[in-house]
Amino acid sequence: MGALVMRVACAWLLLLQLAGASHVVYKNLEMEAATMANVPPSIVDPRLRTGYHFQPPKNWINAPMYYNGWYHFFYQYNPKGATWDNIVWAHSVSRDLINWQALETALEPSIPADKYGCWSGSATTLLDGTPVIMYTGVNRPDVNFEVQNVAYPRDASDPLLREWVKPDHNPIIVPEPDINATQFRDPTTAWLSSDGQWRLLVGSVAEGGARGAAYVYRSRDFRRWRRVPRPLHSAATGMWECPDFYPVEAGFAAGLDASALAAASGGPKVRHVLKNSLDLRRYDYYTVGTYDEEAERYVPEDPAGDEHHLRYDYGNFYASKTFYDPAKKRRILWGWANESDAHAHDVAKGWAGIQAIPRKVWLDFGGKQVLQWPVEEVEALRHQPPVTVKDTVIKPGQHVEVTGLQQTAQADVEVSFVLSSLDGAETLEPEFAHDAERLCGVKGADVQGGVGPFGLWVLASADMQERTAVFFRVFKAAGSSRPVVLMCTDPTRSSLNPDLYLPTFAGFVDTELSDGKISLRTLIDRSVVESFGAGGKTCILSRVYPSLAIDMNARLYVFNNGKADVKVSRLSAWEMKKPLMNGV
């Protein structure tokens, strides 16, 4: 896809974050559109709308912050249709990241610097506590000439920040002649450095577009900004969208505030995460490294990090953004997931795009990767008590239904597996050593292995014609006895509906299985399957659209398609309630 499409995707993420505050069902619109578009009725079934993931009431969606006791979610939203057009910055607020209230539109095209588009951006809190939005505007009709703008609340004493104003000195950052103005967007949250200057990044390209780049801009007054000549970092990946840059500390689960950290001069254990959304691949990648403020350079810890990328999520997850939550001293990650059905389906449904569950993110003890886990507030939606399964051995070729829940189409499942032996693990062929997704495509859930595949069948129909598999499969590296653990979501049998995009998603899990144990948590939400492997080391979100396994007709199973026994030491499953959401 071209730059416009990717730019739109970034905007979608922000839009989704703000607009998804309602679960109003427009049945007449859906059925009429389905008839006109010749779309299968199950595709527009309102029971496929998410129950507890953030989603707008209708139409199409794609800079979170915390202020005076409220979480604010700004996202790009199309109030007129389920396609990318007529984009505004919608705005929702919450006390707990789960229950949302939609407010008035925060930003829409209204000045010369954003006349042809208000695109993605970020929020920053200034030293006096004033919140500021930095965003990309398009100011020419004939070309996507991108500039960076700023907006301030009309009344900073209003904790809901209902109204925003754009000062006359916009735009505050204009691309220099050596910058491709059509690939210059998505300013990050700014941080105050030890030299008293504000810094932020803008995503772009270098060397004629061959390299993605994050450029540093500095300012003393948040009005006049100057670019550091060379990028903070770049790599041969193509355009970098939606950059994000923040400090972390190995084994320190609490979040770090970038500005406060700079004022304290950081520390020897502090590292930084640089994340970029790749225009060419449509995935979010990150590296962990060292930031030299004086030299204005970032160096990844792993020299091969730019080639063999780490990803927040190995599934349908893009244009993500983190923010520091001072109320609970944590860093929270938001990500956007688009639809995997056809464009005509989106129009017929009247909605498109959802937000992933907000995740707490921190650096692991080894300092090699970030860990992610659904924010604790999600657990308040669990119907108590859970259904539990304990000390149950799943034999090769066996599957066991998890019963006792009234419905499993909207559920939270946590399961711990114990492997009886790793001796039968297959040898991992070198061609798959850095390509988990292709490996999963070849070794899917229905392909018997030595140790695995084992895991969950979710959103399964009674006759098993439809089922989505979330599983692990254990290999051994060539010439080594070290296990290589694959985690995969396989939706190839998720629906009987035609014209669906059903890719397998996969990532490797950094674990040695020294005790033979591995855990999985899966959030099931009607058309979303969001999974966290090994305590959040590997995460995969997938969109599925069952035609049979909908609502009360969905079932849940544990399965083992390997040659070795697998024990479920404990499984807990909760039905999930709908949060309180008031729509736009």
TrEMBL record:
Residues 1-21 form the signal peptide. Residues 53-374 form the Glycosyl hydrolase family 32 N-terminal domain. Pfam families: Glyco_hydro_32C (PF08244), Glyco_hydro_32N (PF00251). Residues 377-575 form the Glycosyl hydrolase family 32 C-terminal domain. Keywords: Glycoprotein, Glycosidase, Hydrolase, Signal. InterPro entries: ConA-like_dom_sf (IPR013320), Fructan_Metab_Enzymes (IPR050551), Glyco_hydro_32 (IPR001362), Glyco_hydro_32_C (IPR013189), Glyco_hydro_32_N (IPR013148), Glyco_hydro_beta-prop_sf (IPR023296). Transmembrane segments: none annotated. SMART domains: Glyco_32. GO terms for molecular function: hydrolase activity, acting on glycosyl bonds. Gene3D superfamilies: Exo-inulinase, domain 1 (2.60.120.560), Glycosyl hydrolase domain, family 43 (2.115.10.20). Belongs to the glycosyl hydrolase 32 family. This is Beta-fructofuranosidase.
